[in-house]
C-alpha cells in the first residue's frame, strides 16, 4: 500500500467516506482516496519519494492538512487523523437546549476488589441546558431518578438502592444545578455546580468537552457534550464497605462519572 491511515473523530469513532487528497510541492494533486466504512484509507497508487501535503475532508467536519513523507519504498503512513465536527470548538448557539435521554448516558465506574471495575448507569434522567450570551452565565439543571441504577446484576442493584448506598426510598432524586462556567481550553470548560445525593449537597465540578453541533433527521439542531468528574462515596454518606483481604476493600471509595450528552435546540421533546 502506498498510503495508509485511519480517519477518526475526537472520541474515537470512524469517519466513513472521508476523502484524503495528496498534493506535491507544486500544489498539483497526485492522489485522491476515500476512507472505507471503518475510516481506513488504503490506496496503492505509486508515488515518487518526497514530501507531500495531505488534506483530509468529510462532510460536517472541519478539514485538516498535514505533511506526509513518502519513503524510498513508495509508502506513506498518515496514521490516525482526527477530525473535529464543524462548530466543535465553540459552545452551541445561545438559548435553551433539552437533553435527549434516548441518545445520552449517565455512567459511573467503581473499583472492585482492587483489581477490576464495575460499571453502572442510570436509565431515567432529564436535563435542561441554557447557553447564555455571556457564556459564564450558562446554566444546566439535571434530575436523575436514583432507583434507575443498572449495573447488569439484579441483586447488586437492589443493594445499591438500599440504605447502604443510594437510599432511594428516602432520597428518590439525584440533582445537579450549575453555578458557573469557566473556559479550560479551546473546546473545554469547567462547569461549577452543586450535586445533591442522599440529601447531601456538595460542590462538584464537571470537566466538559463540546463535541460539536449538527442537524438531525427531524429538522432540529443537536449538540453533543462529554463531561467527567470523580466523586467520593464518603462525601455523600455512603460508607458501606467490607474488607476482603490484606486491607483491600471490596468496593472502591471513588466513583468515576462520565456523561455522554446529546441535546436538542429548544424546549422540545426529542425524537427517538
Q: Specify the CATH class of the largest domain.
A: Mainly Beta
Class based on secondary structure composition and strand pairing? mainly beta
Largest sheet entry: 8 strands, antiparallel, barrel
The CATH superfamily of the largest domain turns out to be Lipid/polyisoprenoid-binding, YceI-like
Q: If helices are DSSP runs of H or I spanning 4 or more residues, what is the number of helices?
A: 1
| CATH T-level topology of the largest domain | Lipocalin
Helix and strand sequence: EEEEEEEEEEEEEHEEEEEEE
The spatial strand order of the largest sheet comes to 8-11-12-14-15-16-17-20
List keywords for this structure.
272 residues; mainly beta; Immunoglobulin-like; Lipocalin; 2 domains; eight-stranded antiparallel beta barrel; four-stranded antiparallel beta sheet; 1 helix; 56% strand
TL;DR of this structure?
The protein is 3% helix and 56% strand. It contains 1 helix and 20 strands. It has an 8-stranded antiparallel β-barrel.
Explain the overall architecture.
The chain has 272 residues and is mostly beta strands. The protein has two domains: 81 residues, Immunoglobulins (Immunoglobulin-like); 171 residues, Lipocalin (Beta Barrel), CATH 2.40.128.110. 3% of the residues lie in helices and 56% in strands. The chain is built from one helix and 20 strands. The strands form four sheets. It has an eight-stranded antiparallel β-barrel. Strands 3-2-5-6 form a four-stranded antiparallel beta sheet, with no helix packed on it. A three-stranded mixed beta sheet has the order 4-1-7, with no helix packed on it. Strand 14 and strand 15 form a beta hairpin. The chain is elongated, with a radius of gyration of 23 Å.
Amino acid at each position: 500500500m502506498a498510503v495508509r491511515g485511519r480517519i477518526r473523530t475526537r472520541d474515537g469513532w470512524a469517519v466513513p467516506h472521508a476523502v484524503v487528497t495528496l498534493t506535491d510541492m507544486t500544489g498539483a494533486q497526485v492522489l485522491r482516496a476515500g476512507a472505507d466504512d471503518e475510516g481506513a484509507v488504503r490506496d496503492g497508487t505509486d508515488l515518487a519519494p518526497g514530501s507531500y501535503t495531505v488534506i483530509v475532508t468529510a462532510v460536517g467536519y472541519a478539514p485538516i492538512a498535514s505533511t506526509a513523507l513518502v519513503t524510498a519504498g513508495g509508502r506513506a503512513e498518515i496514521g490516525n487523523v482526527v477530525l473535529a465536527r464543524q462548530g466543535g470548538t465553540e459552545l452551541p448557539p445561545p438559548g435553551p437546549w433539552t437533553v435527549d435521554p434516548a441518545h445520552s448516558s449517565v455512567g459511573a465506574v467503581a473499583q472492585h476488589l482492587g483489581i477490576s471495575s464495575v460499571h453502572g448507569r442510570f436509565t431515567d434522567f432529564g436535563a435542561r441546558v441554557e447557553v447564555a450570551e455571556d457564556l459564564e452565565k450558562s446554566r444546566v439543571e439535571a434530575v436523575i431518578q436514583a432507583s434507575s441504577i443498572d449495573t447488569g446484576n439484579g441483586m447488586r442493584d437492589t443493594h445499591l438502592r438500599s440504605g447502604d448506598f443510594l437510599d432511594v426510598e428516602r432520597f428518590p432524586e439525584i440533582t445537579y444545578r450549575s453555578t458557573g462556567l469557566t473556559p479550560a481550553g479551546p473546546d473545554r470548560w469547567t462547569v461549577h455546580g452543586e450535586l445533591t445525593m442522599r440529601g447531601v449537597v456538595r460542590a462538584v465540578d464537571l470537566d466538559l468537552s463540546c463535541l460539536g453541533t449538527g442537524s438531525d433527521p427531524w429538522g432540529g439542531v443537536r449538540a453533543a457534550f462529554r463531561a467527567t468528574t470523580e466523586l467520593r462515596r464518603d462525601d455523600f454518606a455512603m460508607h458501606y464497605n467490607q474488607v476482603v483481604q490484606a486491607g483491600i476493600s471490596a468496593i472502591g471509595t471513588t466513583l468515576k462519572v462520565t456523561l455522554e450528552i446529546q441535546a436538542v435546540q429548544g424546549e422540545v421533546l426529542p425524537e427517538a
